[in-house]
Design a protein that fits this description.
By secondary structure, the protein is an alpha+beta fold. Helix content is 28%, strand content 34%. α7 packs across α8 and α12 runs antiparallel to α13.
Length: 655
């Protein structure tokens, strides 16, 4: 077995690999850039090597620096994680020349499956169902429009070397095909150094289901069930689960055997994933094969008990698989939510900054893969993932319930994040019913995410928690004040909603009457705690609470409610208070995120129409097109291509 391996990656996946290597008694080497100096993966490893500036193109993507780090530390093998160099044939070849093992598949698999165009041709030749499309490269935007029209809209414009949702656009007409081609091409060159583009038919209302395969160098290959990855935004997976609520044993076997056949066709060894889209008619089509460890691999590990990283290391060391297909049993259900540094209330724009508070949930049913802790900084240089939160249950219902509780308990402050959005999705009736497609988010949140309206019983629980928090805080400030103020209270949310409640002291908490329902609230919460766990009529309820100028901010179930608990007379007077109005910023185009201006499409004096593309901002390796919200005339251009801007910096002014 290897004595020392180097992890050519960063963040949570580097930490994940280090944990398995440590359990196997293998020493580890981390590499880090300027931005990652002091990062968790650097501190977890036995050794750490600095490899350059913050930009990935000057550090993590430089093959020579990774190889030199191996030589300097005596690392015998490299695990590439995912992204960066994980599917780079030149990297695997360079390691082989230095007699350093690559913990991944061989040259044939990387060459044929790492390229989406080549992989589709190979799959087609092998008799695998593939999505109709144009497998040759697209020359320019005009060519993209021509091919798209021939295939028939909608189409998917994809980077040949793409992955992780980058370099992908859906086009429903000629204009979108033209724009999508250029954006996909730009993202592809900046993320992968490869701007080749192809186009295929976009299957409407599909499910995205992938099969995990595991193969050794001795001709053995098995599949470890499937993962449902249909909850996506901009083709980036958001919530995954295993198994899929859609598949039965017959379909699982058919997809699994096809995935294994494809893996054997390319002499695959290591862990890999064959991705399919599956229609409502249960027909499935090959999308691509990822010749690496997937981001969502933990859900497979939770239901199979197989450590995929350990198996990858053993296969790279030449060992034969000890697991046979008949040994693979899918037990229980697992769900994974990807926590991102992005603001769902502002169109999911990326967020950067320091984690002023970070506390992950714990429990037997909870697994958190992360590369950050309190005080860590989320920068503009890398993917905005904060953590992968996984929960397990005997049934899908139990796994989802555990996920909702874990999201309720997750504390992240200092940056914007998507935790409330994830919680809203997990509690959505359609999600709970398993009625999933890749269009779920676009269909259920067509105007974007603006919070969630809690059901009456859930809202009553939140009101009761606010009452307990408020009164306990008051009781600490003035001894006995809770008793002195009496039992009648009003819980107010802004000026529009007011709920009359009565409160009675009880051992360990309060009895709160909301409407005609009495809620027995019991909790050991004390002022200063950011998280509250309460028993309400025998049900465990978890929420985050924050006191702000007499208002209790309660975060629960994907909603954030600012609740004031007042005596009836004070509640009446509060209704008379004026409400501060937001300033009118309609005459400005503001940068919605920290990032670099790629292009400004208008000049001073230009007339613009609502919906017109005005500028392109690149942040965290993704291009974002900024469009006019209304007709107008540009009076001033305040930023240009190459400028790096902060949130709300002015790009354009309008008359």
């Amino acid at each position: 077995m290897f004595k020392k391996i180097l992890i050519a990656n960063r963040g949570e996946i580097a930490c994940r690999v280090i944990r398995s290597a440590r359990d196997m008694g293998i020493a580890t080497v981390a590499v880090y850039s300027d931005a990652d100096d002091g990062a968790m993966h650097m501190r977890m490893a036995d050794e750490a090597v600095h490899i350059g500036p913050s930009a990935a193109a000057e550090s993590y993507l430089i093959i020579e620096k990774i190889i030199q780090a191996c030589k300097d530390t005596g690392a015998e093998a490299v695990h590439p994680g995912y992204g960066f160099l994980s599917e780079n044939q030149d990297f695997a070849d360079a390691l082989a020349k230095e007699n350093i093992a690559f913990i991944g598949p061989g040259k044939k698999a990387i060459a044929s499956m790492g390229d989406k165009i080549a992989s589709k041709k190979l799959a087609l030749d092998a008799g695998v169902n593939t999505v109709p499309g144009h497998m040759d490269l697209i020359d320019d935007a005009d060519h993209a429009v021509k091919i798209s029209s021939e295939i028939g809209y909608p189409v998917m414009i994809k980077a040949s070397a793409g992955g992780g949702g980058k370099g992908m656009r859906v086009a429903f007409n000629d204009e979108e095909a033209r724009e999508g081609f250029q954006s996909a091409k730009n993202e592809a060159i900046s993320s992968f150094g490869d701007d080749r583009i192809f186009i295929e038919k976009f299957v409407v209302d599909p499910r995205h289901i992938e099969i995990q395969v595991l193969a050794d160098k001795h001709g053995n290959c098995i599949y470890l069930g499937e993962r449902e990855c249909s909850i996506q935004r901009r083709h980036q997976k958001v919530i995954e689960e295993a198994p899929s609520p859609f598949l039965d044993e017959e379909l699982r076997k058919a997809m699994g055997e096809q995935a294994v056949a494809l893996a054997k066709e390319v002499d695959y060894h290591s862990a890999g994933t064959v991705e399919f889209i599956v229609g409502a008619d249960r027909n499935f089509y090959f999308l691509e094969m990822n010749t690496r460890l997937q981001v969502e691999h933990p859900v497979t590990e939770l239901i199979t008990g197989v450590d995929l990283v350990e198996q990858m290391i053993r296969v790279a060391n030449g060992e034969e698989l000890k697991i046979k297909q008949e040994d693979v049993k899918l037990t229980g259900w697992a769900v994974e939510s990807r926590l991102y540094a992005e603001d769902p209330y502002r169109g999911f724009l990326p967020s950067i900054g320091r984690l002023s508070r970070y506390s992950a949930p714990e429990g037997a049913a909870v697994r958190v893969d992360t590369g950050v802790n309190e005080g860590s900084e989320i920068t503009m240089f890398y993917d905005p993932m904060i953590a992968k939160l996984c929960t397990y249950g005997d049934t899908r219902e139990e796994a989802i319930e555990e996920m909702s509780k874990a999201l309720d308990a997750y504390q992240v402050e200092g940056i914007a994040h998507n935790i409330n959005f994830l919680n809203a999705v997990c509690n959505h009736p359609r999600f709970k019913a398993g009625n999933l497609t890749t269009g779920f988010i676009a269909e259920e949140y067509p105007e974007g995410f603006h919070g969630v309206e809690l059901a009456d019983d859930v809202r009553a629980n939140v009101a009761a928690i606010a009452a307990l928090v408020s009164l306990r805080n008051e009781a600490r400030a003035v001894e006995g004040i809770a008793d002195a103020l009496g039992a009648e209270w009003v819980v107010s949310e802004g000026v529009d909603r007011h709920d009359d409640i009565t409160v009675e002291d009880a051992e360990g908490g309060l009895d709160v009457t909301v409407g005609d329902k009495i809620l027995a609230v019991r909790s050991d919460w004390t002022p200063g705690d950011a998280r509250i766990t309460a028993d309400i009529n025998g049900q465990e309820v978890i929420a985050l609470v924050k006191l702000k100028r007499g208002v209790v901010e309660v975060t629960h179930g994907g909603a954030v409610l600012a609740l004031a608990v007042r005596r009836p007379r004070l509640a009446e007077l509060a209704k008379l208070m004026p409400v501060k109005e937001a300033p009118d910023m309609s005459k400005y185009l503001l940068c919605p995120m920290p990032g670099m201006i790629v292009a400004v499409h208008v000049n001073e004096g230009d007339e613009v129409k609502a919906g017109q593309a005005l500028a392109v901002v690149e942040a965290m390796k993704m291009e974002n097109i900024l469009r006019a919200e209304q007709d107008g005339v540009v009076s001033a251009v305040k930023a240009g291509a190459g400028d790096t801007l902060a949130v709300d910096d002015i790009i354009l002014e309008f008359e």
